[in-house]
Write a structure and sequence with these properties.
Layout lengths: L1 E6 L10 H10 L2 E6 L7 H10 L3 E5 L13 H8 L4 E10 L8 H17 L3 E6 L2 H10 L7 E3 L6 H9 L2 E5 L9 H9 L5 E3 L21 H12 L3 H15 L5
Parallel strand pairs: 1-2, 2-3, 3-4, 4-5, 5-6, 6-7, 7-8
Length: 255
């Protein structure tokens, strides 16, 4: 059993392809997928996938790269997050890599997501890029540890990972962990507590080796799990069982 803990199956790359996506998942032992919301406009598509397929779930949130949604109201997010099969709040967080200038709106929107998650008692899905210190500071100031969650597609330092775990969060690894230039990240994947690890694709992006450069999809999470298992010196089956159990426990889903 494997779970893709973070994918974007509502994106155009998957239009008309969902039957094949699901066949490929089954062939690779991928039993569940969490479909991630990145905008209010796209939420209905994400939620529709979760409602249509029993083994798909959804989140509600606005990606930090979307400045046009900077005035997000907490009440609106709470309403979406309370819908059936919505198991988490996000993708939220901070991204100082792609955007420049005064990003206070981004920090305020991150706070809004954390407050909504606490209201709903649902975990957070956090994106953090080139913003580690502010991400941790806001998580602590807003009490994100109350609900926990996951730092998805992790690419930061071991110190950051350990601080996030101490705050009550999980760390999720994507196809990046299979890249040749990801030595530091592979070390993070090797030493973190197994009970805090998840695996993901971030489909349609970041396809793992040996599919790098192609459209990613949930079945390929198997390559991520195989690499993390190799790094840790455990069997693929043990890694798959642990990360799946971690996912179901974090998002309060019955397998």
């Amino acid at each position: 059993m494997l779970v893709d803990s973070h994918c974007h199956l509502d994106y155009p790359e998957f239009e008309g392809r969902m039957d094949q996506v699901r066949v490929d998942m089954a062939a690779n032992g991928v039993t569940h997928a969490l479909c991630i919301s990145t905008s209010l406009e796209g939420f209905p598509r994400v939620h529709a996938l979760a409602e249509r397929y029993a083994n798909f779930y959804a989140t509600a949130g606005v990606h930090p790269d979307h400045p046009e949604s900077s005035t997000l109201r907490m009440e609106e997010l709470v309403e979406l997050g309370a819908r059936p099969k919505v198991v988490g709040i996000g993708e939220t967080g901070l991204d100082y890599y792609r955007l420049e200038g005064d990003l206070e709106w981004q920090r305020e929107r991150f706070r809004t997501h954390i407050r909504a998650a606490r209201r709903l008692k649902k975990p957070l899905v956090i994106h953090s890029r080139a913003a580690a210190q502010d991400t941790l500071r806001i998580m602590r100031e807003e009490g994100a540890g109350e609900v926990g969650g996951v730092l998805h597609c992790f690419t930061e330092t071991l110190d950051f990972a350990r601080a996030a775990i101490a705050t009550g969060f999980h760390i999720s690894f994507s196809g990046i962990v299979t890249f040749k230039n990801a030595g530091a990240l592979r070390e993070v994947a090797r030493v973190l507590p197994l009970e805090r690890l998840l695996v993901e694709t971030d489909s349609p992006y970041l396809a793992p080796v040996p599919h790098r450069g192609k459209t990613n999809h949930p079945a390929l999470v198997r390559h991520v799990a195989e690499e993390v298992a190799r790094l840790r010196g455990v069997t693929f089956e043990a890694l798959a069982q642990a990360t799946s159990s971690n996912f179901f426990s974090l998002f309060s889903i019955s397998p």
